[in-house]
Amino acid sequence: MNPNKSSTITKHCYHCGEQCGDELLLVDDKAFCCQGCKLVFEVLSENDLCAYYDLGNHPGESQRKKSKSNNRFDYLNDQDTQLKLLDFKNETESHITFYIPLIHCASCIWLLENLYQVHTGVYFSRVDFVKKKVQIKFLHDKISLKELVNLLATIGYEPKINLSDLEEKPKSSLDKRTISRLAVAGFCFGNMMLFSLPEYFSEASLMGDGFSQLFSYLNIVLSLPVVFYAASDYYLSAWNSIKQRQINMDVPIVLGIIALFLYSLWEILGMGHAGYMDSLGGLLFFLLLGKIYQQKTYATLEFDRDYKSYFPIAVTRLHQNQEEVIPISKLQVGDVILVRDEELIPADSILLSAGASIDYSFVTGEEIPVPMKKGTLIYAGGRQKGEPVLLTIQKSPSQGYLTDLWNNESFEKDKNRLLEPLSSRISSVFTWTVLAIAFLSFSYWAFAELSIAVKVFASVLIVACPCALAMSTPFTLGNTLRIFGKNKFYLKNASVVERMALVNAIVFDKTGTLTDPANAKIDYQGTELSEETLRVLKTMVSHSTHPLSNRINYWIGPKSGISVDFLKEIKGQGIQAFYKGQQLKLGSKNFTGFQNSPSYDKGNLVFLSLEDQDLGYFHIESGLRQEATEVSQQLSPNYQLHLLSGDHAHEQDSLAVHLGEKIQYNFNQSPKAKLEYLKKLNLESQSLMVGDGLNDAGALQESTVGIAISDQVSHFSPASDAILDAKAFGKLPAFLSFSKGSRSIIKASFVLSFLYNIVGISLAVQGLLSPVICAILMPLSSISVVLFTTLSTNLLAWRKGLLTQKID
Amino acid sequence: MEVIFLLIAISLVLAVTFLILFFKAMKGGQFEDDYTPSIRILFENQPKKPIKNPSPKPESNE
User: Fold this and answer.
1) Cβ count near A721 (within 10 Å)
2) How far apart are CA A257 and CA A217, in angstroms?
3) What is the 3-state secondary structure (H, E, C) of A324-374?
4) Any idea where the domains of chain B sit in the sequence?
5) Nearest CB to B1; choose among A113, A172, A207
């Protein structure tokens, strides 16, 4: 279509931009790397949508790795499932919002919004690029939900549907309500300020009494929406906390609002004075502003930690020799299911097929598949590698081993039992103190003159309003979370920062945390391999997706493979190849028929034989992460370090060389033992646990702070308080000291706002506070505290190397 | 100085109008996605095939 696009002669896929391999496919002079990409192009060109390719270079997503089973969306025909997914449905049309993670460029938006040209059943589609969502309205007589999802999958935009979507629809955002409250408060505050300004400068008297009266009444009218609408959330929260016989920060705020409102009413109506309505408006405006900032920070950090997202949403069940796809919740004990390559086992079940190769990386953290025999019990969470297998369900999905682990009672415990957030502890003390001061000064002045006593009582409550106190914590922690997020360290919520600051013991899980799969140590023993053999070997290991093959592939380095006559991978056994009439075998000892016994009794061994004669073997040992040594050195002076591992103790000596002697090593730890270890540790210290898989889920949950380390952020583990991108592992010491710094900043800002309060209260109890001072002091203290916390966290982050520019 | 009464009335009406306009904009979803429209406006208009479907309704449901 476009002459400029003739550059496709270089063998990059026209659709996805990947380098085309040997199986180059050509359509209209355009090269495609696989059938999938070609298919997408054909669908688009049939519908005259090739402008897709003009908007961006190679806008598509590679279709090569997509699983292509035709019936995997069958569960969408289920009426219950449909109702849960749809936003809206009537006799003719349905509306649905999909989450499509693949949306990444202008072409994606264009294509998805032109969906009506591909299928006449779709009449409206609109993309939200930032949220990666698309809202589609379609006529369900012309296209069913399943066909729609299939269509999206065909053009390369498969929506992500998981079980948590089915449970409930996300509610309309709370955020919107707070924003309308803020708008009302801001509107009233601004106008009240205008009407009160003459009062501050005694100009009103120049204009005559009529004006100042009018202004005061206008202020009352404007204060009504503030008191009865904008502040309503605070009444609710204060009332709830009183009902639970506690006092939270909102109680003094509500007391202040009520006192301020009633006192101003009395002043304006009874005394003919100006009142403090403008301060009231300002108070609510700044409070709500802080709240929205807080919500914004939380919203960006919200992540789906529902374990159900790990589980396949539908299962293929064999029913009267017919394959059918059903939602997982309908699975029953005794059902026979079919699990294909790379699919998860949804529930504990018994293997019916001759053999399977199960990858338990979700459960044990070990990614090397375990061979299984017919009749063995396979636990939920395993992943089948290789041929499809048949299984009978033994337990319904909710009772599986993994759910048992998650439902362990220790998970239910509220971690806040350990540490109440600093602010809420101070706030109850603060509230009682302020109330005491207010009542004391009221009774003192009541003997002299009642009108002064009322004024003093109200102004103590007003000026001592813990506005600055209430804001310092969310602003500091919010900014801290933002800075952590920039460094690929994602916290569940702000209270994690406070807990991190108090940690004094750190527990590392070994596999996947301190060790890096890409950094494995490989040792080759045996006859030296010729260049030619190495190249044959390269071809063999590239063919396989087995983790050990990948590591050997890495060890061979950048060589080009050589074509062999015959190549076959026997899953769970090894790889067999014929080259120049000779048979090469790479794999387990039995498979290769290896005779000599190796000198290693630990680690993983891969044997190599030529025509059933021993050639040699590879010894593969997981290697430490590059930053591990540095991290343990930086942490050991200040923290107690522990290491837990499910492996045998044979690696202790080599680990001690790299990590130092100060660490307490514990080997042969089962998930249960890890949990017990953490429980014991928690009796005397605050622990931080760094782990990776579901097998430490119990321990992660039990620890004060549980950090899940992840090589891909999209593949995090549940049950953790925080997710750390593996690349940022080296920054762990900086993160810890930064959270300590944040806590100090919160304390410092408390001191600052206490100073304001002391000055304010000491003036107020003497009856010296005029409305002007009151109105200026309140927003001023809040603003200065917010500025102080934001600037000082940024400065601290910059010093720790967590922020490249000082302020952004 | 009586003109000030009029001015106050006008200023209040104006401010209320702005508040109402803001609410309307927020309800209409103008603040929900502030990125995609900036890309959408750059797309070329294609000669469209006649569409037999019901005409796309303006944004109404939320």
Assistant:
1) 23
2) 18
3) EEEEHHHCCCCCEEEECCCCECCCCEEECCCEEEEECHHHHCCCCCEEEEC
4) 1-27
5) A207
Distance CA A263, CA A771 (A): 12
The pTM of the whole model exceeds 0.90? no
Please list the rounded mean pLDDT of every run of 10 residues in chain A (808 residues): 43 75 72 76 76 72 58 75 80 85 78 83 85 86 87 81 53 69 91 82 62 84 92 88 76 77 85 78 80 61 38 66 70 80 74 80 62 81 75 69 44 43 68 83 84 73 66 76 78 76 84 68 79 82 67 74 76 79 82 73 75 81 76 84 74 74 77 80 84 65 77 48 77 89 87 83 77 62 78 87 59
Chain A residue numbers with beta carbons less than 8 Å from the beta carbon of B42 are 106
Do the Cβ atoms of A469 and A786 come closer than 8 Å? no
Q: Which of A87, A140, A187 to mutate to test the interface with B (most CBs of B within 10 A)?
A: A187
Identity (one letter) of the amino acid at A483?
Answer: I
Smallest CA-to-CA distance from A310 within A239, A383, A247 is with: A383
Closest among A729, A732, A728, A711 to A365, alpha carbons compared: A711
Asked if B53 and A117 come within 8 Å (Cβ–Cβ), the reply is no
Chain B residues touching chain A at CB-CB below 8 Å: 1, 4-5, 8, 11-12, 15-16, 18-19, 22-23, 26, 31-36, 39-40, 42-44, 46, 49, 51-54, 56-57, 61-62
Q: Which residue of A has its CA nearest to B61?
A: A88
Neighbours of A368 (CB within 10 A): 15
ipTM of the complex: 0.72
